[in-house]
Amino acid sequence: MASAEQVSASRLAPPPRRRRGRRAPLRSWRLRDQILFVLTWTAGIALCAVLTAVLVFFAVQGIEYLRPSLLVTHPSASVTQSGSGGFLDAIEGTVLLGAIGLLIAVPVGVVTAVWVVEFGRPRWLGRIVESTVEIIAGTPDIVIAIFGLAFFQLGFFSFLSFREPGGAFGRSFLTAGVMMSFLAIPAIYTATRNGLLATPRQMREASYALGKTRIATIRRVVLPAVRRDIATGSTLGLARIIGDTAIVILLLGATLRLQSAGSFGFLSGTGSTLTSYIFNNSPAGDGNAPQKAYAAAAILLLLVVGLNWAVGRVGRIGGPPLHQPSRRLGA
Amino acid sequence: MSSEREMTDSEPDTEAWKNESLPIDKLDFEAELMAIAPEQTNTSVRHARAPATTVERLRVEDVSVFYGGTPAVKGVSLSIHKGEVLALIGPSGCGKTTLLRTLNRLTELTHNASHSGQILLDGDDTHELVDTELRARVSMVFQQPNPFPMSIFDNVAFALREQSRRRPRRRELEPLVNQALQRAGLYEEVRGDLDRSALRLSGGQQQRLCIARAIAQEPEILLMDEPCSALDPRSTSVIEDLILQLREDLAIVIVTHNLQQARRIADRVAFMYLGDLVELGDTEQIFTAPRDEQTREYIAGVFG
After folding, report:
1. Are B267 and B254 in contact (CB under 8 A)?
2. What are the residues facing B251 on neighbouring strands?
3. Which of A133, A175, B78, B268 is such that its CA lies 20 to 30 A from the CA of B123?
4. So what's the ipTM on this one?
């Protein structure tokens, strides 16, 4: 076994340092290959440069304008910069909306993926579900937002916000969270589906061969095997939610502070997120306080970068990858 | 994982079938041979290592398996006894894996598979048994080690945890898990560290874990589909020793491409070719005095 192999290897001299053999020089390549080679490097480096520029810009802006007090004080309407407070409510709104969105999107995305991959019959229904998710993924958020507004302004949904003459107000954390989940569902669905497809058939068969039913196999073997994919998809979906502006402006009211309303308190009330805060304080918005917008943008960027880092971490926790490539030992 | 292997192993060699035109009388002859095969083995000198008593566990009666319209196994009859190792040998695409997977109804998972004939487990038609119950009694170890992505303990306990009933506590399962790991010869290597991920084990250890998992619920029959073909020689010999020990309590059916392995561990050997059971006999007889010309040529390496 492997341990025995390691023992015998350690008795031998240490392996020599890796040396690269001679390779064909770039000059000898065909012209087309040379051009493509240079292009790929240029494109890669250019992309990194743009990203670095964005990060450096906001790091500088953040250091210049970000004050700890901004993170913990409520915003208020004021003509002076010193009087308009911080963006505590925006941070709370971002966290709350992300939580509501994921709470809806994770079960829906995972269950849909499981159905499509594990059952998916009748075939035509499976195909419809597949393309529906693709269409949702490609729909601009503003379209989702305005559909959501029209939908939730129906009187029937007044419990999610509050009743108004002629229907419901339609804007609240709950209604915005529901529409936000549509941004996260495709990411969660795709990651889960790919994980399920990459789960070897042998793993399922091993479970069947031990006398387990299909449902037990999915619940106890297949789903645990893709929990990392679910986590990855959720993190990507969360990044989409916290980065979205259109739904916040149309469906969350983009009010300066969290305002409770209706039957569920602040959940059925309005509020703002970092994105809408940035929008309102940018030169294009009402607030016109670019310094605060930059500070909020730095925080938002930090969140997104942190989430991306988390995606990478999630991919590594708990041992080797679950869809390990087949391990062939010896003969 | 490897679709290549699936094509060569689990699926019948359709091209070969199209080219093959078996004369009717040949088929009849083989049916005759198959019918008398079990009796022959009873009268012939049994393998020295085999226990004296033989309780018939599984009886396969005239079983044919088709993928779509293509036959993969053609009218095979044989029986499997407690305390013996039966090896199925034959070239790729000869139907031995298909036959093995039919024994615990895993072929039902293939959409276009159908079959005729009867398989009796202790006298009961396996198709009358609930599939989960059958597979708990006729367990299987696969070619590629396929541990679940969970801890070593959970892998072995997986089979023991009843579905839809109260989940047994870890304390209750521990002795059973330890016992299964001991029987599979893995306990000494992993004890004290049962919560480690099973994927961190070496290939040979993973395969022994799969065996522990398969025997944890005390099956009557253990099916093994080339359990050593993905392993190094050292792991292979560990598993072969293990098979010889497990034989005491169960009946083992093993598919193998490795003739030497069949000779080392099997009590009886069945040679299959193009879906037919060509010859079934005592291991020594098959390897030293095969009755059938095809068997002799296969053993001698004329084709493979």
Report:
1. no
2. B221
3. B268
4. 0.76
Tell me, yes or no, if A7 comes closer than 8 A to chain B by beta carbon: no
User: In Å, how far from its chain's centre is CA B89?
Assistant: 11
What angle (nearest 5°) sits at the alpha carbon of residue A217, between those of residues A212 and A220? 115
- With cut-offs at 50, 70 and 90, classify the pLDDT of residue B41: very low
pLDDT-based confidence at residue A315 (cuts at 50, 70, 90): low
Residue with tokens 């590594």: A316
- Separation between Cα atoms, residue B142 and residue B148, nearest integer Å: 13
Between A216, A224, A330, which is nearest B149 by CB? A224
Say which residues have a Cβ less than 8 Å from residue B261's Cβ, sequence separation at least 6: B87, B228, B236, B240
Residue A217: closest CA among A117, A126, A324: A117
* Cα–Cα distance for residue pair B82/A311, rounded to 1 Å: 52
> For A290-311, what is each residue's pLDDT tens digit?
888 888 888 898 888 888 888 7
Nearest CA among A323, A318, A315 for reference residue A196: A323
Number of CB pairs, chain A paired with chain B, less than 8 A apart: 119
Residues 6+ apart with CB under 8 A from B55: B81, B82, B83
pTM of the entire structure? 0.74
Structure tokens at B78: 């044989």
Instruction: Report yes or no: A200 at the B interface, CB cutoff 8 Å.
Output: yes
CB-facing half-sphere around the CA of A262: CA atoms within 13 A: 22
